[in-house]
Known about the structure:
Layout: E1 14-17, H1 24-37, E2 44-49, H2 55-68, E3 72-78, H3 81-90, E4 95-99, E5 108-115, E6 119-120, H4 123-136, E7 149-150, H5 154-163, E8 174-178, H6 184-195, E9 198-201, H7 219-230, E10 236-240, E11 247-250, E12 256-257, H8 259-273, E13 278-282, H9 287-295, E14 299-303, H10 307-317, E15 321-323, E16 329-331, E17 337-338, H11 340-354, H12 358-366, E18 370-371, E19 375-377, H13 382-393, E20 399-401, E21 406-410, E22 413-419, E23 426-432, H14 436-450
Parallel strand pairs: 2-3, 2-4, 3-7, 8-9, 8-10, 13-14, 13-15
Antiparallel strand pairs: 1-5, 4-5, 5-6, 10-11, 11-12, 15-16, 16-17, 18-23, 19-23, 20-21, 21-22, 22-23
Amino acid sequence: MSTNHSAAFRLGDIRGIYPSDINESFIYQFARIFTRHFGLAGKRVVTGRDTRHSGESLQQALNQGLLDSGLEVLDLGISATEVGYFASVQTGISAALMVTASHNPGAYNGLKCILAGGKVVTFETGLRDIMYAMAVEHHEVRMAPEQPQPAEIHEHFCDFISGKFSGEPLQGLRMALNPMFGTAVPTASALAASLGLNISWLNQEAAPVPPEGPDPIKPDRLAEMQRFMARGQYDLGVAWDGDADRCLFFDGTGNLIPTYYVVGMFATAALERSPGAAIVYDSKLCWNTEDIIARHRGKPVIARTGHAFMKEKMQSSGAAYGGELSGHHYFGDFFGCDSGMYAWLEMVRILSHAGKDLASLTEEYRRQIRCTREVSLKIGNFDALTTRLMSEFEVLAEAVTRVDGLAIHLGNWRMSIVPSKTEDTVRFNFEGRCSEDELLEGANHVLRLASAYVASEEAVPTLQATL
């Protein structure tokens, strides 16, 4: 087992650099202790992986640890994480364990752990206890004679998702799809065929994760998508991350649609179908979402950023929809879990009924609330930074919240500073009911203050425009 095993335990999942933080020995030991901790011996579980170069050997170690613990293992192979969520609810299994590091660089890998009913295992609900046990226990490899069985689940998953959209007029749009060499291809292809959608692919091959990671928000990837869409006549572009549970949307000219406004579109659609329903959202940017919920007499439910925390709030509140600025979208119709496939088809449904293109629809939301792009900085002392910001702005603040990091409401603009759950960075976001110049002035002042706490040599950007 890696001597740095604790470095891989995060708040909502397992992530670390392969092989120093996470390796085959780590995964095997984790599987043995996970089984005992949750009393799963004799039960059925599902495993799967994304396309990282270390994924196959790590999944093999995971399968062996589960088999040696007396479990029946169903192997999805390369699979979108949401197929694991589906399996945990619809197939009678006791757990799904997906080997993935999502959008992180190619050197990383990890685990997302889901119990029956789509319940994500977090640091507080099991990972911490497993981490402590792994520090003192060592289980010998037993090499149980049983072998994993192929998991015949993918077709059932696609039937389930397509059934949510059957009878909808979805066929009129031409779409550019970018799976980032990841796991979206089999599911998106099957759904497109089932629903008669017109699609073209960029980066369709299930290739190893690139060194910089399968992150569609990276500037080079955004430019690549824009170039691809410029070569054809498209109505919509969609890009997923490596395990396909997160997606971004592009208008017909290849311009990225800020996820903040996508959350607004999805919340509006959910509340029109289910008046008064609960809507879950994170605290990074929230004014637009809260306005929409209020107009539709919905129930606002704020959550900490991160897929595990969002799912918990979705499931405990019975919400119709939840959205994160990162591009994770959660649906009551999908057990309160995030689904990049459902999100894609929901956008197609919205555009099919809207009678206008995505750029025009976005502008309606943009006129209400302005926002900036998210800025990520490596901060050496987060507490010192928040203390400095409070000393600067507390006397002017109309409200201060600490649901997740720090958010300060300053009349007609707002800042949010949230530590990442998956990377060693802090996310800065700004929104306002004000002019572009006023919002940029406030945002850049905050970033200048933050520059004194940056732990690396990276330059702190000056924001030039709102989104």
